Amino acid sequence: MTDDRKSLAADNQIVGFRVGPDGRVDTLDLVEVRALIDSAIRAAMDQALRERTVH
User: Fold this and answer.
1) What is the pTM of this model?
2) How many domains does the chain have?
3) Can you tell which superkingdom this protein's organism belongs to (predicted)?
């Protein structure tokens, strides 16, 4: 983790919100948002690879 990311994580700067299935609102810091984006990208790449392999 870079020093900038450590600093942002330590400061816990709120950059977003997420509403759960129960209607509860959670705050997200920059590190959490980045992790969600990375996870979505990996899932999309895995899905594309599966579709390409099947066809």
Assistant:
1) 0.60
2) 1
3) Bacteria
